[in-house]
Amino acid sequence: MTGLLTLFYKELLRFWKVSLQTVLSPLVTTLLYLLIFSHVLEAHIQVYPGINYSSFLIPGLVMMAMLQNAFSNSSSSLIQSKMNGSIVFMLLAPLAYWEFFAAYVAASVVRGAVVGLGVGLAGLWFAPLSLAHPLWMLAFAVLGCGMLGAAGIISSIWAENYDQMAAVQNFIIVPLTFLSGVFYSIHSLPPFWQAVSRVNPFFYLIDGFRYGFFGVSDVSPRLALEIVAACFLALSLATLLLLKSGFKLRK
Amino acid sequence: MTLPALEIHQVYKSFGRVQALQGIDLTVQQGEFFALLGPNGAGKSTLINILAGLALADSGKLAILGHDVRADYRQARRSIGVVPQELVYDAFFTVREMLRFQSGYFGIRNNKAWIDELLEHLALTDKADAYVRHLSGGMKRRVLVAQALVHKPPVIVLDEPTAGVDVELRQSLWAFIQHLNRQGHTIVLTTHYLEEAEALCHRVAMLKQGQVVTLDTTANLLNRHTAIQLRLKLAPSCLPAALKELSCGQDGELFKLSLRRHADLEGVLATLRESGIEVEDLEMVKPDLEDVFLELVK
Ligand SMILES: Nc1ncnc2c1ncn2[C@@H]1O[C@H](COP(=O)(O)OP(=O)(O)O)[C@@H](O)[C@H]1O
Ligand SMILES: [Mg+2]
After folding, report:
1. What pLDDT score was predicted for residue A183?
2. Taking CB atoms and an 8 Å limit, are B104 and A3 in contact across chains?
């Protein structure tokens, strides 16, 4: 276990040393969304009865920030180690591929949680927030960050340079998080876009996470949890197989 | 019977159309100080990377102290410490942090005493808390050496360890490596400073285009491969006809003969005596690895 714990600790220390970039900056960006959208739309929209728009918005923004930061943590750390060659230190060590996986995913979860907690706490200043089902909330948070941590490992193994890495982030991860019902309930969308949203796994993450706060959701939280858990398992399995094969890491 | 430190059997590796290794066979015994020489692109780093698990062979078997590098990769990696050729470092961390992490990756929890000793031996003590990115090239190289040694590996492999390290530090680095060798560590190095290999290594393998072209003790290589040059000052200053075929030039008064073996000297002296020529001065110039190397690379 020492190997795994060391790698985990190294990953935590890495993002903590540059927390201005990795924690504070996403915190500020997310709060700006909250400030602007809640201010503009507060008076016009009520998604769920009895829940004002700012309160509705907060869990969505928290989850969005968590997902993006969890992805960013494993992907930027690995692509940097790959590009500057320092990945050899890990490859030379007798670390098992599953230890490598566990350490990077766990660090992604922590980074996601730190940013998410920050956004959530700061959000309380804008609007009140209930916590109807904390364990559900936690389950979606952990699975979501885990999913994106694994996705970050896969993309950084695949990417050959920073450009390709940024492309995955900007053209896949960011759109998927934005189009997942952070700012609206999918019931407010036309049927076609509702159908599209339902194949976006991030939609279930946000919907389920929100259920944890308000006890209301667009789809059954059970179904959402099952889908999210299945996605997490599938991505983890893919990552583990990739790491085991040494694809692009061991030439 | 003791296990060999390294057992390499019929290893092939290609990168696309480049055949980097073409059937390498090599055994290094425990306690040896072994050099892997060869021109750029010969495949030295590729072989080391495959041993270390950084690259995967297309075919063939490699074992470190009996541990197969694929099937038993954990034990194999614990048995070997590799100093990579490239000057790599992680920009986020200090020297001490890097060494602590590396220890941890190898499952070692509290390694402070040994890390301090390594820092001392490698003259890095006052840089322990500096970020590796702020160090000079030679210092970065020594950090790499320290990282390779955190787990006290029985087999130590250094890929061009003295490139970019200044002369004085090179001496102290070698003194340290020799010290480790005397303690029983097996050392394998590649270098293009041939005098280093000559001074330090018991045995040498020369690689060329992915094949081992020579494998022998350093002493044998020097005896076998290149002629010994005999320089003679004679009175009267003329070379008997019988010795003309050995001649390889003349430098003023100095006749240069090339001998296959030291034993040939007797014949030369006998011929001179019979011809009534006196030897005023005599010098034997031994070939160095560079000559052997150049001869093979030709
Ligand atoms: N990752 C790689 N991709 C493609 N070709 C490579 C790679 N690594 C090494 N080679 C090629 O394999 C050959 C052997 O290289 P290398 O082992 O680095 O030689 P040496 O260390 O003896 O200088 C060279 O022709 C080199 O270009
Ligand atoms: Mg090389």
Report:
1. 84
2. yes
Residues spanned by the domain of B288: 227-297
Residue of B80, B105, B109, B159 to mutate, testing the A interface (most A Cβ within 10 Å of its Cβ)? B105
Test A86 with B88 for CB contact under 8 angstroms.
yes
The single-letter DSSP state of residue B94 is B
In whole angstroms, give the CA distance from residue B132 to residue B176: 21
Query: For residue B149, what is the domain's CATH number?
Result: 3.40.50.300
**What is the model's pTM?**
0.88
- Round the average pLDDT of chain B to a whole number and report it: 90
> Which domain-ending residue is among B163, B194, B223?
B223
* B109 contacts on A by Cβ (under 8 Å): 2
Q: Which of A45, A52, A48 is nearest to A216 (CA)?
A: A48
Instruction: Please give the structure tokens belonging to residue B215.
Output: 């494998």
Both B28 and B153 in one domain: the answer is: yes
Q: Does B109 touch chain A (CB under 8 A)?
A: yes
Q: Check A93 against B77: CB less than 8 A apart.
A: yes
pLDDT of residue A88: 96
Query: Are B50 and B114 members of one domain?
Result: yes
Residue nearest to atom 24 of ligand 1 (CA): B41
Are A251 and B52 inside 8 Å of each other by CB?
Answer: no
With contact defined as beta carbons under 8 Å apart, do B160 and B192 qualify? yes
- Secondary structure element (H or E) that encloses residue B61, with its range: strand B59-64
Number of H helices, E strands in chain A: 12, 0
Taking each continuous run of H as one helix and of E as one strand, the counts in chain B are 10, 14
Same domain, B193 and B55: yes
d(CA B222, CA B96): 43
pLDDT digits (tens, 9 = 90+) for B191-208: 877 778 888 899 999 999
Of all residues in chain B, what percent carry a pLDDT higher than 70?
A: 98
B209 with B231, same domain: the answer is: no
Could you tell me if B178 and B65 lie in one domain?
yes
- CB B46 less than 6 A from any atom of ligand 1: yes
Band (pLDDT 50/70/90 cuts) for residue B297 is low
Least confident of A170-179, B6-15, B55-64, B119-128: A170-179
A interface test, pick of B70, B87, B92 with most A CB neighbours within 10 Å = B92
3-state SS string for A200-249: CHHHHHHHHHHHHHHCCCCCCHHHHHHHHHHHHHHHHHHHHHHHHHCCCC
pLDDT of residue A67: 96
Task: Identify the helix (H) or strand (E) that includes residue B231.
Answer: strand B228-235
- Ramachandran region, residue B184 (left: φ > 0; alpha: ψ -120 to 50; beta: rest): left
**What parts of chain A have a pLDDT lower than 50?**
none
Reported ipTM: 0.91
Q: Is the pLDDT of residue B243 over 90?
A: no
